Amino acid sequence: MDTVSITEQKKSKTTAFSVKEQTPSSAKANIVAGKSSAAVQGKSLSRMKVRRQSYGFSGVAGIRPTERRTSQVGLEYKRPPLIFLNTYQLDPRIKFHVTEVEKTINTVLDAYWEGHKYNIAESPGLAIVIAGEVMRNVKSLGFNRYRIIAVVSLVQKRAQSYSNAVAFLWDHERDGMADIHREITSAFIQVTVFGIYLD
C-alpha cells in the first residue's frame, strides 16, 4: 500500500512539475490547438468539479435554486401585503385653497421670472425649475390626499397666437385650479396648478 501511495504522489508531483517546466512555445502551440496545458498532460490541476448554476443564488453559500424555474419562487419568503382599515373619509381634511396656491406661485415667479430675457438655451431649463419649485411649495402647504399637478408654459413672443386647453374629469366640490399669467417684452409665462382629490 505504501508503494502505491508513493507512486501516486510521484505522479502528481511530476505532472505539476512538467506543466510548470513546459516551454512557452509548446504552451502556445497547445493553446492554438485548443487544448489547455493541463489537459495535454492527462490530468487536471483542480480536483473539484464546480457546476455553474444558470440562475438562482449561486454566489451565496448554503442557498441553492429550486429544481424548476417558476414565477412562484419563494412564496413563503414574501412579505404579507399591508392591510389598512378603511377610513371612510370622503372629504379632505384641508381643502385646496386657490388663494394660498396663487400666493405661492407669485413668490416663485418673483424669485425666478423677474429680469428674465428669453433665451433658447436657458428658458426651457427655467420652466422645469419653476415647475419643480411650485410643486414643492404647494405640497408643503399640506393638502392631504390631493395630487398636485404643475404645468408651466414659457413661450417666446413673436406675434403669434397662443391657446392652451386641458381636459380633466373634474369634481367641482373637491378639485381646484390656480392659474397665473405674466408677460415681459420678449416672452410670457403661464403657470397652472391643479389639485386633484384622490378619494
How would you characterize the overall build of this protein?
With 199 residues, the chain is an alpha+beta fold. The protein has two domains: 2-77, no CATH class; 98-197, Ribosomal protein S3 C-terminal domain, CATH 3.30.1140. It is built from five helices and three strands. It has helices at 2-20, 24-33, 37-41, 98-112, 123-139, and strands spanning 146-156, 176-183, 187-197. A three-stranded antiparallel beta sheet has the order 1-3-2, covered by helices on one side. A hairpin with a 3-residue loop joins strand 2 (176-183) and strand 3. Helix 4 runs antiparallel to helix 5 (123-139). The longest helix has 19 residues, at 2-20. The radius of gyration is 36 Å and the shape is elongated. Residues 13-20 have low confidence and may be disordered.
CATH evolutionary superfamily of the largest domain:
Tctex-1
Shape: elongated
Uncertain segments are 13-20
Percent in strands: 15-25%
Q: What's the SSE pattern?
A: HHHHHEEE
Span between termini: 85 Å
Within the CATH hierarchy, at the fold level, what is the topology of the largest domain? Ribosomal protein S3 C-terminal domain
CATH class of the largest domain: Alpha Beta
Average pLDDT, to the nearest integer? 75
Q: How many structural domains can be distinguished in the coordinates?
A: 2
What is the CATH architecture assignment of the largest domain?
A: 2-Layer Sandwich
Helix/strand class:
alpha+beta
Which bin fits the share of residues in helices? 25-40%
> How many strand elements?
3
Placed side by side, the strands forming the largest sheet appear as 1-3-2
- Per DSSP, the total helix count is 5
Instruction: Using the CA coordinates, give the radius of gyration.
Output: 36 Å
Main beta-sheet strand count, sense and barrel state: 3 strands, antiparallel
GO molecular function, one term: dynein intermediate chain binding
Protein name: Tctex1 domain-containing protein 1-like
Family: Belongs to the dynein light chain Tctex-type family.
Pfam families: Tctex-1
